[in-house]
Design goal:
Immunoglobulin-like, four-stranded antiparallel β-sheet, 2 helices, 8 strands, 42% strand
Length: 137
């Protein structure tokens, strides 16, 4: 009887260990990037850095933004367990005013759907006449 119980426990533990499926898991350094105040037509590129903390390769299925003014670029190759990567986002800084945009990330990760956010304010374009007046004062 002791042998049967020991065999059963060993089989149960083995089954439990081997039934643990390998799975990717994404962990971002930050999920919101604040541009702050940026100049009109300045560089709108920012980067979301992440790491695959899972046990399987991380594959991005889709990355999309809430509007055409924000263009995300997804990694094309799988990110191996323990490796890091980046999702580049470019906001169109020709649009004056406060902005808050969402980037949807869908992958094979344990947390398969994540929303990243960017926010900030694009300042109005300064007129050349105003610049000249400031310089002449």
């Amino acid at each position: 009887m002791k042998n049967s119980a020991l065999t059963f426990i060993t089989l149960f533990i083995s089954f439990f260990i081997f039934s643990q499926e390998k799975q990717a898991e994404i962990k971002f350094e930050v999920t919101t990037i604040d541009y702050g105040e940026v100049e009109f037509e300045s560089d709108g590129k920012r980067v979301f850095k992440f790491k695959n903390v899972g046990t399987a390769p991380l594959i991005f299925k889709r990355i999309s933004s809430s509007c055409g003014c924000t263009i995300p670029k997804k990694p094309e190759k799988p990110i191996e367990p323990g490796d890091s990567g980046e999702i580049e986002v470019e906001y169109d800084t020709k649009r004056v005013g406060i902005f808050m945009k969402a980037i949807s990330v869908v992958s094979n990760s344990k947390n398969s759907s994540i929303v990243l956010r960017i926010k900030g304010e694009v300042l109005e374009e300064e007129d050349e006449e105003e610049d000249e007046e400031k310089n002449n004062i």
